Amino acid sequence: MADMGEFRDAVTAWAAGGPGDPARELAARLSVRTV
Length: 35
Known about the structure:
This protein is mainly α and 35 residues long. It has helices at 4-15, 21-30. The chain has one domain. The longest helix is centred in the N-terminal third of the chain and has 12 residues, at 4-15.
């Protein structure tokens, strides 16, 4: 199961220029609100 730590790592990787798909998928699974 995904957790917020995994989400944070995915967002950090995305912010550093990596792909955003992992963060987007985790946000959906974790019911994270995004803007």
